[in-house]
Specification:
This protein is of the alpha+beta class. The protein contains 5 helices and 11 strands.
Amino acid sequence: MKGKIEKSFVNDNLIEIDCIHIKNLFKAILEVRRNYFYYRTETNETIDDDDWQEQLERVFAYELYHQWSLIQMQYNDFLLKEGKRNDLLYINGEVGKGLEGIHKYPDMVLHGGQGDYVHQEIAVEIKRKANITSEKVIKDLEKLSDMITEGKMAFNAKPFKWGVFILTCGDVSDMKNILDSNSLDAIRDEVLCVFCKGDGILEYSTIDEIKYELL
């Protein structure tokens, strides 16, 4: 599964993934402006691409947290009006989640809250293009893969429904340049990879699609 979404035309019907929470995450990513992806190294009026540098991952992450929280609060308000208080979900950053007795800290999660081991929706890892290596990407993908696998979570916690790897300032070709199909053998096919550059366009692909393209 793969696709491309443009902010100018985004709506729920155009996002093929049948999950309101993934749709809301996509909308939040598209709301993050370019200056949270890049910064200018020169102040002159005429600049070229060499004068833009990638922001640190946490700069993007803080703004994504903000935009995603705004959307989730609106959705929670809707759920409350519908009398669905038990379906409320919240976003946390770098909260510890037990994996086979070891705490892992995904960059962001959408879940029922700290101490809730049942309502586990989305675990997110973020990397920027300038900071990716095969080892770092595989480590994040393995973490996400474990977090969506039944029986991997500690404390009898339910697995997350979605694991999402976000690459900022890059695209799928940047990942394929540092990976091979064998390196992805242990990664669950369902892990979703998202690519964004702050230009109002988002692309996504599941690991199984990337594996196929690497063959």
